[in-house]
Design brief:
- The chain has helices at residues 14-22, 35-43, 55-58, 70-83, 102-116, 130-138, 154-157, 167-183, 195-204, 225-228, 246-262; strands at 27-31, 48-51, 88-92, 120-124, 143-148, 187-191, 209-212, 220-223.
- The chain folds into two domains: 14-242, TIM Barrel (Alpha-Beta Barrel), CATH 3.20.20.60; 245-273, no CATH class.
- The protein has 273 residues and is an alpha/beta fold.
- The longest helix is centred in the middle third of the chain and has 17 residues, at 167-183.
């Protein structure tokens, strides 16, 4: 992390991201939840690292994102910030920390910023959470919105299927996206919605629209790191491109280690003191 933001010209800022949209440059965003992974993701040249509440699934093995706590998100965000030199680090506000009332939302948002030193927060929802969004922005904290398939509402949706396929939901999504931009959000994530709708939103907004399962006519893309590296097996949505098969690589390496230990071929003479 830069000691003082303006001193480090390489550091990605929310302003630089908005400029990237103006310049027609695409934005790459990926999740990370730990120091070692974040170091690799940052050094590769990522624009935004998202400390997603998908840590609940990926790191803790929960079925949904709902159980992860504020303390746990702060723990993950701290580790990622320590590893990151260039990328903008965005931390998800976990379920239950910003839906109850705006004052509590600001208190929780300030805690994440103060303790983790991340750069911005992401909140799921539109007009329902607008008062909280405004108050957090008023406190000087940048916010990225998140619309479409918002996993914290999975119990309301009842399914992880594509959202906003019907006219009413699409119209609400468009008006929510404008409301978030008007409130002062610096970006919006659109998850699992028709590509045509995402393209329309991206063309109407001046802030970057980052898609996940939202087609390519948006301003950038985000994926979950464990999914795109092929560490997770069962999760196979259409939008997910696997860039590696780390599960097989890791299984083979770990299997070889077990064999070497059992056969006493590890450690060898050079690997001891
Ligand atoms: O938590 C997360 O990983 C996310 C992305 C899927 C956008 O919110």
């Amino acid at each position: 992390m830069a000691g003082y933001l303006v001193e480090d010209a390489r550091k990605v800022t929310t302003h630089r991201l908005i400029q990237m949209k103006r310049d027609g440059k695409k934005i790459a965003m990926l999740t990370a939840y730990d120091y070692t992974t974040a170091q690799i993701v940052d050094a590769a040249g990522m624009d935004i690292i998202l400390v997603g509440d998908s840590a609940s699934n990926v790191m803790a093995g929960n079925m949904t994102t709902l159980p992860i706590t504020l303390d746990q998100m702060i723990y993950h965000a701290k580790a990622v910030v320590r590893a990151t030199k260039r990328a903008l680090v965005v931390c998800d506000m976990p379920f239950g920390t910003y839906q109850a009332n705006p004052t509590e939302s600001v208190t929780n948002a300030i805690r994440i910023m103060k303790e983790s030193h991340c750069d911005a927060l992401k909140l799921e929802g539109g007009v329902e959470i607008l008062e909280s969004v405004r108050k957090i922005l008023d406190a000087g904290i940048p916010i990225c919105g998140h619309l479409g398939l918002t996993p914290q509402s999975i119990n309301k949706f009842g399914t992880y299927t594509v959202r906003a396929k019907d006219e009413a939901e699409a119209a609400k999504l468009i008006s929510d996206a404008h409301a978030l931009e008007d409130a002062g959000c610096f970006a919006v994530v659109l998850e699992k919605i028709p590509a045509k709708l995402a393209a329309q939103v991206a063309s109407e907004l001046t802030i970057p629209v980052i898609g996940i399962g939202a087609g390519h006519e948006v301003d950038g893309q985000v994926l979950v790191v464990a999914d795109m590296l092929g560490m997770t097996k069962g999760f196979t949505p259409k939008f997910l491109r696997r860039y590696a098969d780390l599960s097989t690589i890791m299984t083979d390496a770990i299997g070889q280690y077990i064999t070497d230990v059992k056969n006493v071929t590890f450690p060898n003479d050079e690997e001891q003191y």
